[in-house]
């Protein structure tokens, strides 16, 4: 959907708040959001601080676009997304959660995220405000009240540094010395040099978990999901390797027939026909090998994700 040409196009005005918080602050233990209808949200807000001295996009965080990729859960568009068009030359678009009234060090933020592609590196920071104000400030590089960095996905903005498939994250709310803290967490789309970096990021299935037991359950679910991904990736690679084997046999057979025809001094018309078959078989083998390489990378990534999920389960389920 998004094109890398004409990156200097004139953007619209600064995006306003997605919605003003008008409801009673939610308790951390009970809050979940699947972004089924972003326009109808009443407790999340968007603040776009992308270079306030430059025009920025009229929209930053908005309803997910299934033309880029479908949601992690629910309807195809039931997630929230943001693109590099949030600002130029740098993007700093904040998605701020509803205010929570009972945050503690045993709470965690759980969510899923992915990007459209890895060629143009994206970055998300997950930050926490604990003074009750939940104000991200007024500058592109500032963080306002959100001084606690819970984690960052692809912090150095490197190619292939952000997952291109839906991946689950569980971030403990570290740094809280007391219970019943009032505050917010925020997803900050923070991409430097949007002329060359950034494409499209999605967030889905956000939830606050409230104690070690819940964290254990989440970790176990993540490990189960990761194992299923490994199983699927293994099956895909097996099929891809079989296709390579078959393509090799076809090419070998085609070469053998061509060699036999040449040896028998067959008519040029037949030789030409057999050459085309060899060429076609070579192309088929090349495509098969490329798919096998992609499947190998997918399996490697899935195995790494499983290892991480298993490690999380070990630490969360004593």
Q: Rough shape?
A: elongated
Please indicate the count of domains.
2
How many extended strands?
12
List low-pLDDT spans: 1-29
- Percent of residues in helices comes to 25-40%
Structural class: alpha+beta
Report the CATH topology name of the largest domain: Jelly Rolls
End-to-end distance, in Å?
A: 45 Å
What radius of gyration results from the CA coordinates?
A: 25 Å
Per DSSP, the total helix count is: 2
Summed over residues and divided by their number, the pLDDT gives a mean of 84
CATH class division of the largest domain? Mainly Beta
| Helix-strand pattern | EEEEEEEEEEEEHH
Q: Examine the secondary-structure arrangement and name the CATH architecture of the largest domain.
A: Sandwich
Described by strand count, sense and barrel closure, the largest sheet is: 6 strands, antiparallel
Q: Work out the strand percent.
A: 15-25%
Keywords: Coiled coil, Signal
Coiled coil: 237-305
Protein name: Choice-of-anchor J domain-containing protein
Signal peptide: 1-28
